[in-house]
Amino acid sequence: MEGELREMGPERLAEWLPGMWADYRSSIVAAGFSEEAADANVARNRAGLASDEGLAEGNHVFDVLVGGRPVGVLWIGRPSGEGEVEGEYYIYDVEVDEAERGRGYGRLAMELAEAWVRGAGGSRLGLNVWGNNAVARSLYVSLGYRELAVSMAKELDA
C-alpha cells in the first residue's frame, strides 16, 4: 500500500489542534489519570509545543493520504529537555480516522513517519503510548519499537 504525507497549512492546523488536545486529554483520563493531572499535562504540552501562532519550531503535522485521500494525521517533532538523544524525533500524535481503522493505515502512517525522519537526517524515533491502548502497543512492537520504561499503578480500596 502506498501513501504520502502532506503538511498541514495554518488554517487546517487551527481546525485540527483543538480537537486533538481534547482527544489527548480524554486519552489521559481513560488511561487512569485524574482530571486535574490530565489538565496539567495538556497545559504543559500546549505551552511547549504550540501557541496561537502555530506549532513550536521543529514540529510538523501531516495529513496521511492514501490515493490522495486523507485517512489520518501524524505529528512529528524534535523532543526537547532532559534525556534528548542526538538525531531523535518524536511522534506526538498519530491517529487514523475512525472509519478507516483496521485497514493497515496505522502501520502505513508509522512507516511514512520513519521515512520522513530518515529523510530529515534523523536516526531515532520515539513515542508514548498509554498502557490501555493494546492495539497501538501491539502495532509498535510489531514495527520494532521497544519499551524504554513502564509506569504502573493500582487503585486501592479504602
Secondary structure category:
alpha+beta
Helix content: 25-40%
Largest pleated sheet: 5 strands, mixed
Tell me the name of the CATH homologous superfamily.
Answer: Gcn5-related N-acetyltransferase (GNAT)
Span of the ends, CA to CA: 52 Å
Continuous helix count: 4
CATH architecture: 3-Layer(aba) Sandwich
- Write down how many β-strands occur, each being a DSSP E stretch of 2 or more residues: 7
CATH class term:
Alpha Beta
- How many domains is the backbone divided into? 1
Strand content: 15-25%
Arithmetic mean of pLDDT: 91
Q: What name is given to the CATH topology? A: Aminopeptidase
- So what's the overall shape? globular
Helix-strand pattern, N to C?
A: EHHEEEEEHEH
Low-confidence stretches: none
Taking all Cα atoms into account, the compactness measure Rg is 16 Å
**Biggest sheet: strands side by side, in what order?**
1-4-5-6-7
